[in-house]
Write a structure and sequence with these properties.
The protein is an alpha/beta fold and 374 residues long. Helices cover 37% and strands 16% of the residues. It has a seven-stranded mixed β-sheet, with helices on both faces. Helix 8 packs across helix 11. The structure holds pyridoxal-5'-phosphate (PLP).
Length: 374
């Protein structure tokens, strides 16, 4: 059996010769950044592909999050989930906002809307939920609460590229949604991200903010940041878009095969997908419950010894990191579901180039562990 390491993900890169003509154009135009032709084309192409009206590209998803909060002038306290990548909460601290963590739903692993109201104080200005693993949040319940308390909603949709609910883009919900095009995501521009916004005026404001606040050569209207995507990233994005449907179809097959091959192993629970009508199979999370012979960490280490690098997304919880753990909302008693799930989760390798043989190797290590032990 091959010992080639299998990582949790691997970026999908189209054939290099398809990328070279884009590079030639960049060499000819000498325009490397600052809203060049590829940047403009990718914004248009993504709006069409994703089914949204307005989108502003960014250098990465974290800058998109930080800027989205700035654009809406969010202050005070924001209700969010501890079960996410740390950038979700960091974007609040970078804006001088206090995150208030609420627990997650044990099925969707997204923010539990029934916990939101109790966390609202006079300082609350917004809700920052995450469509974790691309599974939709409870969009209507969250919006109803936001409307009754006059709160903004910013969705961290870093995992939700291409996800639709009732055939409508999930990115059309809330006041703003952000995407990440990091190398680990289903659609990548090397590094990259975007803010999806509802109207041209908001996009213009966001475009100004991502370019230091400039509105013309000599006028700066806000303390903006450098959040611009380069022409290289935008070019890769345009090329990726030509291949993305094929890449998503392969992910779908891998998801289906994992469910078949892992079915019936006691203590291995494949996470149910949500109510999306279009899925992206960005992750393949499993829960290791007490019926399994090994603990989650024992299985994780056993996989690593056999060259399979699953990831414990999301462990530790954000609320356990030193800059958050002192907040009252970060206490374990407030986050019992998130705490339990973070101790059971492993995300298995899933990416378009994962071969059938490699996938069987992953499943075999999981299936034989209860027989062989550690
Ligand atoms: C949920 C979530 N939010 C935000 C980010 C930050 O995106 P980026 O790495 O593009 O800055 C990521 C991942 O990287 C993420 O998984």
């Amino acid at each position: 059996m091959s010992d080639k390491p299998i990582y949790v993900t691997q970026p999908y890169l189209p054939p290099l010769e398809e990328f070279l003509p884009y590079l030639e154009q960049i060499w000819q135009s000498r325009q490397l950044t600052n809203g060049g032709p590829f940047h403009k084309q990718l914004e248009e192409a993504l709006c069409e592909y994703l089914g949204v009206e307005h989108l502003a590209l960014f250098a990465n998803g974290t800058l998109a999050l930080v800027t989205a909060l700035q654009a809406l002038r969010i202050t005070g306290e924001v209700i969010t989930t501890p079960y996410s990548f740390v950038a979700t909460a960091h974007s609040l601290l970078w804006n001088g906002i206090r995150p208030v963590f609420v627990d997650i739903d044990p099925v969707t692993l997204n923010m539990d809307p029934s916990k939101i109201e109790a966390a609202i104080t006079p300082l609350t200005t917004a809700i920052l939920p995450v469509h974790c693993y691309g599974n939709p949040c409870e969009l209507d319940s969250i919006q109803t609460i936001a409307d009754s308390y006059n709160l903004k909603v910013v969705y961290d949709a870093a995992h939700a590229f291409g996800v639709k609910v009732l055939n409508r883009s999930i990115l059309q919900h809330g006041d703003l949604s952000i995407l990440s095009f990091h190398a680990t995501k289903v659609f990548t521009t090397f590094e990259g991200g975007a803010i999806v916004c509802p109207d041209a005026k908001t996009k213009q404001h966001i475009d100004n903010l991502k370019n230091f606040g400039f509105v013309n050569e000599t006028t700066v209207v806000a303390p903006g940041i450098n959040g611009k995507m380069s022409e290289f990233g935008a070019a890769l994005g345009l090329l990726q878009l030509k291949h993305v449907d094929q890449a998503l179809a392969r992910r779908r097959e891998i998801d289906r095969d994992y469910r078949k091959q892992l079915a019936g192993i006691p203590g291995v629970v494949c996470m149910e997908r949500g109510n999306q009508t279009h899925d992206n199979h960005a992750y393949f999370p499993i829960l290791i419950t007490p019926e399994y012979k090994l603990s989650r960490d024992e299985l994780y280490e056993r996989m690593r010894r056999r060259g399979i690098f699953g990831r414990r997304y999301f462990y530790p919880l954000i609320s356990n990191f030193p800059m958050y753990r002192g907040f009252p909302s970060a206490q374990h008693s407030n986050l019992s579901v998130a705490t339990a799930i973070s101790e059971q989760i492993i995300c298995l390798p899933i990416y378009p180039n994962l071969s059938g043989t490699e996938q069987r190797r992953v499943c075999e290590v999981i299936a034989t562990a209860p027989l062989e032990g550690r």
